[in-house]
Design a protein that fits this description.
6 helices, 2 domains, ATP-dependent DNA ligase, 17 strands, NHEJ_LigD, Alpha-Beta Plaits, DNA primase, PRIM domain, ligase, seven-stranded mixed β-sheet, ligase activity, 26% helix
């Protein structure tokens, strides 16, 4: 084994790692070794949110200033101890009827993925069962993407409105930063069919846009978005994935998609908290988990039937 490669043991699994000194986030000097260390340390709260969900990797082998690629058909890289699942291919994967994907369910699985420079972990809003069959969506997601001239403060204002609407419909919402520009509001649900969350989310986005057309947009066209927050309801499409809570983002500062409290959303909305305070690094996130636990505890939230549309 070359000096650049070494074998380590993580949670009883033998794993070959390489180029640990490679800087993947040049702006802050964050190395591959630090990426692996973060995912190992955050595993207790991250793993429950990705377990059972086929993972799409966003890989940055030359760091965040280099080229990147999404990888759904990722099982060919995996050690034997990483669980695999074969799922129907979405329409975007040309020439394939199925994909061989992995499930990240143990701390060593996260370390293996991090060693591939899979900096971001993206998962769908549904899980597979013990036989690998896809179930109905169990999460609703509303992705808030600020357009030009808007930012996290405007997202907090929209998130507050969405949270109130979801609660009025009997749901129990949670919220996180995207780790980039925006935020995501989630709720654990019981869906009637695979397209049920998309129908509901689209209707909700249309309603908020109709109420405040100068602040909210539900359509994707970029020309409509300056000065407004897009409620991206389409992330509920079963073929799509969203960045997982506690995932790193491939951004210059090595930021993290971070669960936050509704009190923090209110504080930004009311002007008592600087929106910049909702930008978190890995050390910030680890400290928050130690202090607050998992603020994205959907397993402990109330799971309710999604209203029919």
């Amino acid at each position: 084994m070359s000096p650049a490669r070494q074998r380590v043991e993580i949670a009883g699994r033998q794993l070959a790692v390489s180029n640990l000194d490679k800087v993947l986030f040049p702006e802050v000097g964050f190395t591959k070794a630090q990426v692996i260390d973060y995912y190992v340390r955050i595993a207790p709260v991250l793993l429950p949110h990705v377990a059972g969900r086929p993972v799409t990797f966003t890989r940055w082998p030359d760091g965040v200033e280099g080229q990147t690629f999404f990888e759904k058909n990722n099982a060919r890289h995996a050690p034997q101890w990483v669980r695999r699942v074969t799922v129907p291919s979405p329409g975007s994967s040309r020439g394939r009827e199925t994909l061989d994907m992995v499930l990240l369910e143990h701390v060593a699985d996260l370390a293996w993925a991090a060693n591939l420079a899979a900096l971001e972990v993206h998962v769908p809003q549904w899980r597979v069962d013990a036989d690998g069959e896809a179930g109905l969506p169990d999460l609703l997601v509303l992705d808030l993407d600020p357009g030009p001239e808007t930012g996290i403060a405007e997202c907090c204002a929209v998130a507050e409105r969405l949270g109130q609407r979801l609660e009025a419909d009997g749901l129990d919402p949670v919220v996180k930063t995207s780790g980039s520009k925006g935020m995501q509001v989630y709720a654990p649900i019981e869906a009637a069919d695979r397209d049920h969350p998309s129908r509901y989310a689209k209707k909700l986005a249309q309603e908020l846009s109709a109420e405040t057309p100068d602040d909210v947009v539900w359509r994707m066209e970029k020309v409509l978005r300056p000065g407004k927050v897009l409620i991206d309801w389409s992330q509920n499409n079963p073929a799509k994935t969203t960045v997982a809570p506690y995932s790193l983002r491939a951004r210059a500062g090595a930021t993290v998609s971070t669960p936050i409290g509704w009190d923090e959303v209110d504080a930004v909305r009311e002007g008592s908290l600087d929106p910049a305070a909702l930008r978190f690094t890995t050390e910030d996130v680890l400290a928050r988990v130690e202090e607050y636990g998992d603020l994205f505890d959907v397993a402990g939230a109330r799971r309710a039937p999604l209203p029919e549309v």
